[in-house]
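$ fold --in a.seq
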Amino acid sequence: MSTHFVENLRVVSTVAGIGLVFAGERYFVGAPSHMWLVAVGISLMVAGIAFAIKSLLDARARGHNRELPSWRLAICWQSQILGASGLYFLYFKLLGSRPFPDTFAMKALLASWVLMAVFGFFMGFGIEWAQLNNGRAEMAEPQRVRLTARSALKVAMLFVIIASLNYMAVKKNVTWDLSYLKTTRPSESTAKVISSLEQDVSVALFFPLGNEVLSHVHLYFSGISALSPHLSVNTFDVEINPLSAEEFKVNRNGYVVLKSGSNTERFDLGLTMSTAKKTLKNIDIEFQKALLATTQKRKVVYFTRGHGELTWNGADEGLGLKSIKLIEKYLRTLNYTVKFFGVSEGSTKEVPADADAVVVAGGDLPFLIAEAEVLQKYVEGHGKLMLLLDVDVPLGTTMSPNVRDATHDPLVKWLSTIGLTFEPKMLANMTNHYAGTKSAADVWFLYTTVFTSHESVQTLARNDQKGAAILTLRSGYFTTKQDVPEWSVNDTVRSLSDTFVDENRNFKYDEGKEVRGPKVLGAVAEQKVSTKPDPKSGAQPSPLPGAKPDETPPGRVVAFADASIISDPLIQNQGNLVYFVDSLRWLVGGTLVTGVPVSEEDIRIRHTSKEDAAWFYGTIVLVPGLVLLAGALATRRSRRPRIGGAV
């Protein structure tokens, strides 16, 4: 075997191996050929290293010592790529069914294989580019190859630094603004609360004239009183206006105070930008929270427990998709009181009288028959219920007796009697999904922008063209009936039209066995309140205690086919938060205020897998590639002999 043939075969073998491993992991996951592609790819990479070692030994045997450093560098970058591949497979084996790495060791392993692969690729590109023009034997230029490898490593380090800063900025939502910040104007949600006011509310801003914080506060409150004749905004200085300070019960400047009748709420901004910075970014949230607390009765929402539901009461921080600590915190800011409702709280007897709504946040254990009857009686007695269901079988497990079976759960069975039948079958989408784990299971990580005109999803429907989307992870779906005598049923959220039911859960679309089409992810049901007397007894319909006959609020149900939409990882998506808040507001009745307050710290809607790929390859690969190509052409041109023999 000739020396030049072995040298050429080394690069071809390594590149072909990398291509086969990439293709197997990216396009053939779950296919019978997946393991074959990976095995052949790894074998070719090992063969490439073997060819490089042979070239090194041949050069040493011939006494071509000037070639040895170049071959050692070639072996180094090829071994890095092989090592990165090994760490990659180890990482995903240890990750298992978890959607994200949740320990320091797993995150370190993720960073290790990514960094090794990046450094290996950049170093390999530089070394092989230098080897194209490198001489052989005594004409070899090891110093040139070494310098090129060092330059490539510097470019790789720059790439890693930029990518790391970009990742941190996205995760932490960090921005640099030399003007510091744009104080948010009142959100649509806050504007609706103001316009619906029925009692007078006074807003007092206690700041000295010329204060740096006051200028930013005025940006938010300027013109806000024009939204309602019942709202007035005035600025006071505690030192100059002591009577106003006494009226609003403040003893220093820096406060924003709201007063309506005998109710008073306040929040502290401080007098310097260093202390006011964080609150100014969330001033819309703080103001709406204070406004609701001042003008509206505090709503009480009960969350069921005892069936494996999502909870905020975890003893540790490892709840992941089972945690709803962010929802619990957010509901409190919106003037809700949240409580648990389980057997110890009387779930087998009756729903507490102060309940404005009950939420069932998933769970993998069935309800007791007595519990289901209590909730059924509560809803049919004009109660409000939100049911967030789950397919309920975790990744990598099979159905067992202790897992909720939707076909036998008494609460889910009752749901079908009012026109909402839950289908615990996994939905998937091969094209339009969120690339969260970079694995085959991502086809179950769906997003949707399809919303109906129902008032509980008005905000999302108006903003669907602006990227407002709901993220779901391992979702089932509903079949709905419109002909239920006592209930009015409406779809609210549907999946995209190319979604299909992954019957055998093999992460792929089986032509001829599975059918693509939109599925109902969210729906609502509302009692048809009768105003006619009972045909048998002649009795008039009885309203709830304290309500007039024409003001009897009907029973309402909100149902969604995936409980994880309100979990801590997914609720950070603005669309999920808007859906939950608006649906809950529709449930409890009163003036429907759609949308959520805005914040400079809000996490934006994430891109789809297609958009992520386009932006990633365009900014990370294409642009640097063009720069490198331009530099290479300029270098080669500068090395050409000049006309006339000039050197």
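$ fold --in b.seq
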Amino acid sequence: MTDNPHQAADKPSAGISTDRGALVATLVNLWPYIWPSDRRDLKLRVVGAMLLLLAAKLATIAVPFTFKWATDALAGQGGVPLPPNLWMVYALAVPVTMTIAYGGMRVLMAVLTQMRDGVFAKVSMHAVRRLAYRTFEHMHQLSLRFHLERKTGGLTRVLERGRNGIEIIVRMVILQLAPTIIEVALIVGVLLWQFDWRYVAVILVTVVLYMWFTYVATEWRINIRRTMNESDTDANTKAIDSLLNYETVKYFSAEEREAARYDKSMARYEAASVKAYTSLAVLNAGQAVIFTFGLGATMVMCVNGILAGTNTIGDFVMINAMMIQLYQPLNFMGMVYREIKQAVTDIEIMFSILARPPEIVDRPGAPPLKVSEGTIRFENVVFAYDPERCILKGLSFEVPAGRTVAVVGPSGAGKSTISRLLYRFYDVTAGRILIDGQDISAVTQKSLRLAIGMVPQDTVLFNDTIRYNIRYGRWDASDAEVEEAARLAQIDGFIRISPKGYETEVGERGLKLSGGEKQRVAIARTILKGPPILLLDEATSALDSHTEKDIQDALDRVAENRTTLVIAHRLSTIVGADEIIVLDQGIIVERGSHQQLLSHNGLYASMWNRQREAEEAREKLALAGEDTAAPNRNPPPVEDEISKAASRPLVAPADAAE
């Protein structure tokens, strides 16, 4: 027996339908979660809940009969011929006994119903958990393209409402819809046996009119509910987006503007909510009117029967109790339909996410990547995010094992695209990428990413402790290994002077740390991972000049005997690279060592000279006391320098055609 929520058996055999009206398809797809093939204990709970359900409904049907018998006994209409000396005993004992039986049946009905709910709770909540797990897992399997387009606030809201919607559907179908159908059938049978077909006809007409009105009104309300959900999602998205950008809001004194944007979305939510509540009032009033007409008709028929001598006072009480008894499940049927329809509306986006296939998948039987040396090779790689705009145009280069190759270029040249393709966040449009002669599209994604260590330019941390964020690099690392990685990344001293040390909370997205501190945490977790291949996206860009030297030394030590690819924005960090590749508009325009490129006096030399001039001017201003900027301010990104120099003619080396 297993409690693992991601067993293969959890997945439905068919795709999940996103059609708003496909309730049956939705229930079919939910069934594997309600009746899991790998959980015998949950199946027994389902069976037990069904038996308790049936017993509770039989007790429910017995309640009006005990009420009738008690009433007839009190009215002297029991129809039992007894001697005069025994009649008084009967007149006292039977009503009391039937009244006790009436109370006993109601207690039994309530106890059995609550036992059913308790037994089935484990089934319903486990189904919710498994589906929520599957959706969360699937979101991580979707492509980077999907996550770049998504809105985090809206997506978490969809997950939350979808999870609640699943719980409603599971509980309503098993605990409300099935019992209601059984109870209506039993009541119709009892009325046909105890009275005659006219009563059944009135009840059937009442039920049909009731359900027709419920259907029409609910369909009307669904669109209102959808508008309300969209407004709620929009308001939540704006709130999270604004709070995540708290500092930017403060920089531009935009608090009032952000509040107005949020209030505009909430105003739409308010209007939709008012319509939703108003429509609910109309629905409830219409249902009450229809049922009251049916109740009145059956009671008038019973009064005529009493006057004609064919019915007793007990029958009058019984028909009233039976109709009231019918109203509860009938009202539940209306509520069940409304809730299920609304739940399907709530989870339709969640189901569409589940139905969306991952863009990048492992080939069947794909082997793990085996890294012996770590040589990276791009062979005539072509890639486009959009077919209308090609980013990389036949890119070919090699990063030999244990060597360092840097890539520079203007914004849009394709530098970041290279790192994303190497991590296989996207598949190449044409050509191939090899590691030790193995096409990365033919190996498992997990093994590929385990072999590469990434230090991004913009580090985002989990809202947890420093120790947690460093250990993320290798989850089974010991505390000593975590602290050694922090020491190599030059952050151990800062951590130890903090009041909570390694248990210091970093805040959402690491906002409690400075940019340099966040970067060093990212470097520490990559050091802890210890991969054979390093990918550095300007790992020291957020550091001051003094710390940059320390971190660069640490990175140099980490990079020893490792293949290293550097995406560079500041040229001072890559002067020691074995080869520097200059990209422009998706092609290589220059390549060589730092000295070779300077002697060539081309684009790279122009970039270098402009950066040096900017640094020297800043130093002179600082010495003169006129520099209002921070003394250790970083030089401008190389993209700015490249953009200025790119328009000048250049003579590319012989291999620039690559």
